[in-house]
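User:
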Amino acid sequence: MVFVIFRDVLFGRWAGMVITLCSFLLVLVATLNPYNFNFTETVGNAEHCFIILGPGKYDTRDIIQNILLFLPLGFSLTVYLTQTMRLGTITSLSVTIFICFGVSYIVEVLQMFLPSRFPSLSDVLSNCTGGILGFLCFFLWSIKFKIIDHNSDSMKKKLPVIILGFSMFTFLISISLQWESSLNNWNRNFPLLLGNERTGNRPWQGYVSELFIADKAISETEVEQVFFKNNTFDIIGESLIASYQFSGTESYHDEMENSPDLVWRGEPQDIQQRDGVLLGHNNWLETEAPAEYLTRRIVATSQFTIGTVVATGDTIQAGPARIISLSEDISHRNFTLGQSGSDLIFRLRTPFSEENGAKLSLIVPDIFSTINPHNLIITYDGLTLLLYVDGKLSSYSLELNPGTILFSSLFRQITYCVTGFKAIHYVYYALIFVPLGILMALAVKKIRKQSLIQIITISISVLLPSIIFEGVLVSVSGRAVRVENLLTSMIFTIIPMVFLRYIIPRIL
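Assistant: Predicted structure:
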């Protein structure tokens, strides 16, 4: 009874218009408040003209907020267009997109005159995406409340459009989220440093005896080969882009001849007490010029491997104290390997973690609880950050899948986690593939049971979206295909199809 009353109120003749006006007012309040316009100049973004908006600055949280803001407007517009004006599906979708684009564009132009707002084309695109999501939500609700008869020929024609629209929307959102794990925002003007920041205020005390950097993630087998002192270049090949061996007390040359020499800063060391180079409060190493080639190669692949042998000189150091860093100062880095207390901390810059990289901090306890040397290898394949200590994989890792990034964006939570923390990953896949499985089940409902066509259709419905989704994420992140992800998406698609087609009909 409650559902029926709610349906009649929500989808009544004038309800669409009322809800649309309310949604429109919500957009104006959220985007133009506090209305302190200054029409004498374009305060918010003076370099943009009224016709062409620039890309602007944005992050994942802004995109999600803009999508959610326009979702009610897209939903209510679809209610009005389909229930009051009786327009067709494609026409309603076209009009919804056009109106959302127009409203968003006008709002962005008005924001040029607001000192607290920054208009951008990315806001317009994410707002339009929210309108499309609202359009799709209407049809999902209409199926639930039986406004559209899913047994009718009309519904059979609309389902493919809904499936395609839902797939495109979720896949585009996933692309946007996965892009946040790339390394495309690395700064090429940062030097490579050992033992401190170039500002001299994050010193680390200890020994470093070797360092190599590659522009790809290496496998566990390759890590074992490197650990057992085989030739690093023979194992990694042309992906090895920098290699330093620390012997003597002068400057240190990159054996790959790609990066500048590491030279002493502060008070130069004149005594070598053991294998490697001793770094302390008053002396550290810095490349003579920015490590531009190294950065450019890593940005091109969005992968890296860093290998080093280090021994702390003090089991309790703060800062975090910088062991190896590709950075400008304490707030701007591409990556930093440091020591905090006796823990190892690795910070990584991505579009999500921004310039400081603090959002993506891999913390591994008690690595430096003794002064014994450790062979450390850190790899990143565009998705997962792994640490190997003395040839063994650490139980601590950082996985930047779309679900993790979405969760962290919504709750502003610093993302460091332990291997096995998969719940968010599975929830994200369920949000995509469970609704898709429901839509697929409705689409194949009229096919004769146990027919060959039914088997082929169901197989394609399960396999094709999973393969496309994984392929899209692989192309964005650069990582390898993961069978686990394919199986997860297929399982979440199959479960609702089985329930809707076989279990629920028998219960009812």
